[in-house]
Amino acid sequence: MRLIDIETMDIVERFGPSIEPYVILSHTWEDEEVTFQDWDQPSTRNEMKGFQKIRETCELGAADGYRYAWVDTCCIDKTNSTELSEAINSMYKWYEDAAVCYVYLSELRDGAGDEALKEQRWFKRGWTLQELIAPRKVQFFSQNWLRIGEKVAMAKLLSEITSINQDIISMSQDLNDFSVAERMSWASGRETTRPEDLAYCLLGMFGVNMPMLYGEGKKAFLRLQQEIIRTTNDLSIFAWEYVPLVRRTWQDHNNNPCGIFAESPSEFAIRDPLSRSKLKITALKRQTEGDVTVTNAGIKITCRLQLVWTRQKGNYSYVLPVARARGRSATIWSVSFDDDLGVMLKKVDSGLFVRQNPLSLVRMNKRTKRLDVDRYCPNAYILNDLSMWSPLDRYRELRFYWPPGVRVVRCWPWADWDDETGVFMTGRDGPRGSMLIEVKVEDPIDDIPAQIMEFMFVFFGPLDQDYLTYTLVEYGPYQMPLDVINLRLHGRDMSHKEMFHALRRSTIPRQHSAFARIPRTEYGVRLSVQAVETKPPRCEFSMLVDSFDHIPEVDILPWSDTPLHV
């Protein structure tokens, strides 16, 4: 670390424990800043406009009893890429370790009020965010170096200006007490000269390091998010809302899929849709079922997805809970709320998701309409690079038609089943899976309350009406052998031929209809299925509820007639 010796005005190097207490300058860059190369030419350097800031910093430091000072313009050799990278990665700690940070507001007239302070460019720059938060002692000065006040004493006003939580400014809470999304929101609206610096200036805020690659543009912010998710399981990093450009319509962004990572910090400025007040975003108590892994296309995550009714789509959609939002409603009663926030996902292939509806997060509370089961999702992939997927990839699928009162409760392997569209996604060799089907008889029969019966549909083989092999049975009588098959399907270690032999050995009948008695009645339910030749192929289910005498018998088919019989 290079420091200015205040007594000799020489630049010296200090390392580790040998670094003595120093003061540090925070400012906005202007014309004629003194660089490291200028420092060895005193006659030139002393006449430069930027040297005045350095002189005042050193004089203030000496008056406060310090021997050394650090100023970014001259204490870093910016022509040396290695040194520049090291300095940027160390910048937060350098400000954090400083004895005092002097903030110079070059455009603020002496004696100006709070309104003039709010307009200062210093509050809009990216690098000055960490320069406000990191040091314990921060003093503000006007353009003629008149002391305005200190950070802790001005915490309430500074919080209003910056939208940064007052507790972090007053040093009453630690930085790590705040969620990733909350910290990202503090950088919303800030600017940097180079687009890469919008990511690099946040490294210290999240305790991560990464190499500087000037020229990569917005990819730097993507790399920052990837580094953060490698060090934390705080899913609030995905709690962002897209800010659309004027040239693209709201519908374009709302309907099109997008990546899981944000494009800039401005997308973390989450506001209440009615009051437009900024929401406090906190981390979920329970984040994930395991680690989140960054891949070349996005992330791999083990989690539980909820099926939530969304007005935008008019059906149930996959939602990944990522954070909690706290605030007050815009009603006349100003009721406080504490809702879960989630991102809407769309399954595009087996175990593969993209984010949908990037313009808004899904708000969830006790009044939210959702299914009573969530979906355990091991090793799900959520894309960020959409070039890794094409909608044309979904031609290999098996579709279904369900009559009223019939629904799929579980599916093995679940990664291949899409609850939202009701299709089963398959490999090139065709599907192999099973479904637990729930039949609900809504109308009471002979004063008996509504009943629920369970059936199991097992299927495998090529996607062709003549070759798809399937059977439909009542679940209860065959639960044990079916559960063994489902366990292997979940682990994806069962071929078509192995399924055929497992079904045949377990004495599970091959049939296209199944019958179940309605308890304590003379009635029963017959559920039937038929493969229909369409593109993509479809299995159509039908249901009959009637007395025992009127329900046709179930035909048992020989397994030896299947294409896989050997």
How is the secondary structure organized here?
Layout: E1 2-5, E2 10-13, E3 22-26, H1 42-45, H2 51-63, E4 68-70, H3 81-97, E5 100-104, H4 114-118, H5 128-133, E6 138-141, E7 147-150, H6 155-162, H7 166-169, H8 180-186, H9 197-200, H10 203-206, H11 219-231, H12 250-255, E8 280-282, E9 293-294, E10 298-310, E11 315-328, E12 336-349, E13 352-356, E14 362-364, E15 375-383, E16 397-401, E17 406-412, E18 417-418, E19 423-425, E20 432-441, E21 451-460, E22 469-474, H13 479-490, H14 496-505, E23 513-517, E24 523-532, E25 538-547
Parallel strand pairs: 3-4, 3-5, 5-6, 13-15, 16-25
Antiparallel strand pairs: 1-2, 1-4, 6-7, 8-11, 9-10, 10-11, 10-15, 11-12, 12-13, 12-14, 16-19, 17-20, 18-19, 20-21, 21-22, 23-24, 24-25
Pfam families: DUF8212, HET
InterPro entries: DUF8212 (IPR058525), HET (IPR010730)
Domain DUF8212: 219-255
Account of the 3D structure:
- It comes from Colletotrichum kahawae.
- Residues 219-255 form the DUF8212 domain.
- The chain is built from 14 helices and 25 strands.
- It starts with a strand and ends in a 19-residue tail after the last strand.
- The strands form 4 sheets. The protein has a 7-stranded mixed β-sheet, with helices on both faces.
- The chain has 566 residues and is of the alpha+beta class.
- Mean pLDDT is 88; it is low at 246-251.
- Helices cover 20% and strands 28% of the residues.
- Beta percentage is 25-35%
Write out the strand line-up for the largest beta sheet, numbering strands in chain order.
2-1-4-3-5-6-7
Radius of gyration: 32 Å
Average pLDDT taken over every residue: 88
**Structural class determined from secondary elements:** alpha+beta
Which outline best applies?
A: elongated
Number of helices: 14
Helical fraction equals: 10-25%
Report on the biggest sheet.
7 strands, mixed
Task: Quote the distance from N terminus to C terminus.
Answer: 76 Å
Uncertain stretches of 5 or more adjacent residues: 246-251
**Secondary structure tally: strands:** 25
The total domain count is 3
Domain DUF8212: 219-255
Organism: Colletotrichum kahawae
Protein name: Ankyrin repeat-containing protein
Domain Heterokaryon incompatibility: 22-115
